[in-house]
Amino acid sequence: MRRFIIEREIEGASELTQEQLAGIASTSNAAAASLGVPYHWVQSYVAGDKLYCVHVAEDEETVREHARRGGFPANRVTEVATDFGPHTATSVAVAVR
Amino acid sequence: MDLLERDHERGVIGAALVSAAAGQGAGVAVVGDAGAGKSALLGSTYAADGLRVLRGGCDPLRTPRPLGPFRDVAGEAGFGPLLHGEGASLAHVCDELYDALRTRPTVLVVEDLHWVDAASVDVLRFLARRVGSMPLALLVSYRDHEIGLRHPVRPLLGDLARLDGLTTLHLSPLSVAGVGQLVAGTGLDADKVHAITGGNPFFVTEVAKDPGRPLPVSVRDAVLARTVDVDPEDLEVLQLVATAPDRLDDRVLPALGVDLPTLRRLEATGLLDRARGGLVFRHELARQALESTIPGGGAPRLHARVLDGLERIGTTEPAVLTHHAVAARDADRAVRYARAAAEEAIRAGSHTEAADFFRTALDHLDDAPPAERAELLLRLSFEQYMTSRLTEAIETVRATFPLWRDAGSDVGLAAAHETCAVYEYYNARRHRAEALVDRAADIAAEIGRGTGTGPPTGAAADPAQGTAWATRAFLAYMRNDVDRARRGLDDAARVAATGDHAQLALRTDLVRSLTALVEGDVTARGRLTDQVEAARAHGWDELASTGYSQLASLDVEQRRLRAAEQVLDASLPFTVERDIPICRHWQTAVRSRLHFAQGHWGAALEDAEDVLEREGMPVARLWPQLVAALVPLREGGTPPRRQLDTAWELASEIDEPMRRLPVLSALAESMWMTGETDPRVTEDAVREVARAADTTGMEWGVGDLAAWLVRLGLLDAWPAQVAEPFRMSAEGRAEEAASWWQRAGDSFNAAMALGDSTDPAHRTRAVEMLDQLGAGATADRQRVVLRADGVGQVPPRPRESTRANPSGLTNRQLDVARLVARGFTNAEIAARLYISPKTADHHVSAVLAKMGLSNRRAVMVRAEELGLV
Questions:
Q1: Domains recognised in chain A with CATH numbers
Q2: ipTM of the complex
Q3: How far out from the chain centre does Cα B252 lie?
Q4: Which of B99, B297, B495, B547 could lock B532 by a disulfide, CB 3.0 to 4.6 Å apart?
């Protein structure tokens, strides 16, 4: 399974209400459930006129199929290469030294 | 895969793309049978180019989606209302599309026009006329064998054949050699495959995919060969997709239980594709093949599943929902969606489809109350009227009469009678129309007195009665019965004053102004234009347009030709924009008469043919018939038997003096030209000119007919009441009469007035003027009369090259000639007429050649004399 970041351009995304976001979530869950293959929606972030979603799936095509079924745009789908954060600072430092 | 044997076609389309990228657009229509490779050809050409590509398609739904192909591209093209499924007027869509396509080089592809809706045809015609001035490659495709005589796409195909910058490509089947290339390496025999497939590229390709099997005998067999290994559950998914000719929306897949592994298995068949937000078959032939495998009785269940799914995702396309509801045999939903689809079609200006949807709704309206059925029938009848199917519209309204009675609604019954009266009048049955409107007024009067049935007394009944009275007054005005018109208007105005009936009040005022104008009160013109403006401001388009129609008509009748030109310049585009067919036909007919009076024979004939070619609206056909008869008579001496007989029958049905007298004048002119005695002239005309002489507002018609009867020696004395230029002729002031006509812009009558003179110099001048006008046969006839009267010095026939006149110009060329006369350059003309400078250049050359002038300066210098300013 691979992890993807999906950028969805939605004008006025930041103005979406909690009810609207709930509706989108339920559509997304139904779309994921209908795929008949392993699929995991991890988390989504609303920022400006975009949604940034983190999904786990077998491949990019499955991510796009999920978007089609949900009626969502998927302007850019990028596989996550790796992640890091404050908690990884030490290990990196050690590795450099 | 390379495209075989399409090099020429690819070259043509490639050239269109290059030209579009350079800002001077072009259009290409690709024509061929199903499977001929239309989509493949189009796809192969624009794929490589850097232009923006917008793809829209038409679908084989029971009734097409109004503006379907433009809805498909709305999102990408960035034009608003259609994108959100909102209703948008045709004019608005055209404007938005024009703006969206003007700024950025674009390939617009609209496939499968044999399934197109009427509104989309209008939009495409709008683009086709302007394509030369836009950075647009307009690529369309259709199957010519599926386009019958009354198909809505016909006018567009006419444009494609006629307009500059548009090309039509007919795709021929592949040769044996071509088939050989496609089946190379499969072991199949090219000759055999060619014989079975007829060289149909789609068929050949399907055969080549499965060379191991026995050769299929049909496309269907070839397609179904792809499905032999598909299990029954997966086959049902293919059948579900086949129920949706537009597409199976991706969003309904969860509701239908179609998972990703299933889609991946089906991918192996090579039959499906993803497009327009859904699953589609790669080819319509494949869809039909799969549809044919749905077992008898199985289709309703499949459609019901799709319909449920579409409802769940909130689909906003009622045309699609109607398609599935009807096929699912779900009457309630069929009625609901068909009504919604009809409303959407009306907003889009797609009246053919609106009528179809209302018909669908009526077919599924099982136990509805009579008033509901009657109301739907009335809506249907209006759409039939809008599509020039008047006879059907009248039948449909008449079918509501018993229903309103069953429903106990006299208000409905009165309104239906009034509507039917209007349609009967447009159908040229004036007497029937008057009987119906009288009945409408009686029914309404009974409600007013409280003796009728239905909603109780008083206020509800009054508007119905006022409307009936106003219609009755209008019909009286049309037959110059000003007293009766005025009484009807007084009655209607009283009703209008009792409440909030602003439209009725304005309508009454407008007909009152028209009546005054008939009586010769020219100051009524100003009031009339104010009233038309007021109607426009309120959005009462039909009332505004009727005002324009009548104003233009009276302006021509009373020989205010330049004023008529101005009115029609403003009003004809309005009738097209607001989609009011009766007024468009009527005004085109009036313009035909106007051009005729101005000696613009070519443009007059063009307008006349335009009206005569359209079926319906018989009341508007009279002048076009006269023009179609008299232009060839004046130009070439062709005797006009048939058209004048038809016109006379029509005038007898309408039975109004303003319509009867011009036909009698035409018959008299024909008799004068051919020398064949016609009892309609020697008897009817002589009698009617005397009778009409006492009728208000007939000074022009009487004068014109009297002039011909005097020339024929059938009238001893002129009637007392004739219009000014005729009075001059009657009093022997031929020169004054001729200059009056010349000032009015009617050179033919100017020449004829001089010809009536006793002075031989006037008469020879008349012959020269007629030659100049291109009325060669009339000039010849005058020569015969001159010689018979012993006048020497009869002017000889001119050589062809010495004529300079705009009589042969078409409407478009006349527009160009007027702009040339005003000193515009080709670039300025191109900008004003939405054409490319090259096309403008062609037009200018054609105009100069037809007028026999060597350069544009000559047009400017002689503009006044040629009637171009």
A1: 2-96 (3.30.70.3090)
A2: 0.91
A3: 39
A4: B547
